[in-house]
Amino acid sequence: MDQNTGFEIEEVAINDPSVHEEEFELTLRPRLMNDYIGQRQIKGNLEILIEAAQKRQEPIEHLMLYGPPGLGKTTLAHVISREMSANIRVTSGPAIERAGDLASILTNLAAGDILFIDEIHRINRNVEEVLYPAMEDYVIDLVVGKGPSARTMRLELPKFTLIGATTKIGMLSSPLRDRFGALYRLEFYDDDELAQIVKRSASLLKVEIDHSGVSEIARRSRRTPRIANRILKRVRDYAEVKHHGYIDRGIADQALKRLDIDHLGLDRTDCEYLNTIINKFNGGPVGLDTISAAMAEDKDTLEDVIEPYLLQLGFINRTPRGRIATPAAHQHLGIPVQPGSSPLL
Ligand code: ADE
């Protein structure tokens, strides 16, 4: 923990399917709400929620954080726990295999604790049913014994707060979604917010970087802090080998070109995705399953990691008949729109 900045530097494993590797990344996480850059509206709402709960000396209501990967859902959950001076217990939907696993997690919580469930859309039905009464009435019903002698036993739980996170809010059942007191959608960051994040990370990593280097990295980070921090570290490597460690626009540009990251932040997979729609399917519409098969790329990776930023740039449209590459995408890749392509374009 850096006493001056309120940031902590920690090692965590980040499994990012877009790069197909599991790597340990040094992350630079803000600890308190004041250090957390961006997501202004969510922060404003959370500050009121937290202050009101503290005044009433109650835990905050169950919260759902959703949006594309890398925008800070897990970080925000940790920030909330620190602001509430609450313990946080971290797990994920797929890690809770049986109802009994969840029962044991819940019965080990203390009053005021926060339970963070990442990828909550991947929780299975049996587990989800235990969650309903736990969230609503702070109880769980356990079945004890088997056959005719089986009976249910109701256990009281301490008043806890569930924070769920998901990239796929649409996959949540409505009974589960309805049990959250507030749902917050994390937005992509603007260039200025990303520049602030890059600047602070550089200062914590003791990287020398000028204003032009900061803005070049910010501009090419897909509006995503996790990517900005990852790129900063790769550019730092390049600068240390080629430029005595100093980063300016020129060095950032050279390093990013070597990483195949273009001036809008698109990498090889993004461009391959667009090229597939344009060259193999005449611009679309084409179904996601077909694109996934043509690229030999996982469908969920395309949907969760690749598409959100391309949608944000206006490079693709999702229609009932499939994905379409827009004229802006054609222009970016320098490919003219074919005369016979979709009238939906
Ligand atoms: N690092 C990653 N996300 C961040 C954020 N939202 N604010 C500050 N630093 C960050």
Features:
345 residues, alpha/beta, Rossmann fold, Helicase, Ruva Protein, domain 3, Arc Repressor Mutant, subunit A, 3 domains, 5-stranded parallel sheet, two-stranded antiparallel sheet, 13 strands, binds adenine
Write a brief caption for the model.
By secondary structure, the chain is an alpha/beta fold.
Structure, explained:
- With 345 residues, the protein is of the alpha/beta class.
- The protein has three domains: 10-185, P-loop containing nucleotide triphosphate hydrolases (Rossmann fold, 3-Layer(aba) Sandwich); 191-258, Helicase, Ruva Protein, domain 3 (Orthogonal Bundle); 268-333, Arc Repressor Mutant, subunit A, CATH 1.10.10.
- The chain is 43% helix and 20% strand.
- The chain contains 13 helices and 13 strands.
- The chain has helices at residues 40-56, 73-83, 99-107, 125-137, 174-178, 191-204, 211-219, 225-242, 249-258, 268-280, 288-295, 299-312, 327-333, and strands spanning 7-16, 21-30, 63-66, 88-92, 114-118, 139-144, 151-156, 161-166, 182-185, 208-209, 246-247, 316-319, 322-325.
- A five-stranded parallel β-sheet has the order 4-5-8-3-9, covered by helices on one side. A two-stranded antiparallel ribbon has the order 1-2.
- Helix 3 packs parallel to helix 4, helix 6 crosses helix 8 and helix 7 (211-219) packs parallel to helix 9.
- The longest helix has 18 residues, at 225-242.
- It starts with 6 loop residues before the first strand and ends in a 12-residue tail after the last helix.
- The model is unreliable at 1-26 (pLDDT under 50).
